[in-house]
Amino acid sequence: MSRTAERVLGIIGIVFTVISIFGAVFGAVIFRMFTTNADFRQEIEMELYSDPAMTPADIDMFFNMFDAFGGFLWFVVVFFLISLVLNIFGLVKIWNNKNPKLAGILFIIAGLTAGIVSLTSILLYVAGIMCLTRKETLPPRDYQDPLVTDTPPGDDGMRPL
After folding, report:
1. How far apart are CA 150 and CA 115, in angstroms?
2. 24 and 81 in contact (C-beta within 8 Å)?
């Protein structure tokens, strides 16, 4: 049975996961540069101090949240890497129709680690469900076509005793 649809969805999932990894790494590096650059931090502090409603505690909380979000992005990168590895293993298992059930499970777990409701995870869910539900349609081994016989014409199959 051809598993072309599952392969294509798996490859698209890999491409989207790699793009997501690059985006998350870029975001984490940018957040890190913003928090470690003293000039940039001082400029933002001056802007925040110009607002009369902001207290020094609020400004510290703002920068702590900024740092925490940068750390969260590295956490997201780790999950995307796990998703990428599982997706590649699933693609290897489905490539020659070796183990479609295992591939389906790997695709679904990769979708969960890529984000619960992202485009990548939806594609991987569809590929996983297709792997788990599609059945091979092979004729039974003992099937004999009634139109094909091994007897020559005119032979009714009766033999003398």
Report:
1. 59
2. no
- CA distance linking residue 45 with residue 59, whole number of Å: 7
pTM over 0.90: no
Q: How far from 150 is each of 59, 143, 154, 155, 161, CA to CA, in Å?
A: 90, 14, 12, 10, 21
If phi > 0 it is left, if psi is from -120 to 50 it is alpha, else beta; for residue 152 that is beta
d(CA 51, CA 137): 70
CB atoms within 10 A of CB 90: 30
Would you give per-residue pLDDT tens digits along the chain (161 residues)?
688 999 999 999 999 999 999 999 998 888 888 778 888 888 888 888 888 888 888 888 888 887 888 889 999 999 999 999 999 999 999 988 889 999 999 999 999 999 888 999 999 999 999 999 987 766 566 666 666 656 666 666 666 66
User: Quick one: how far is CA 93 from the chain centroid?
Assistant: 15
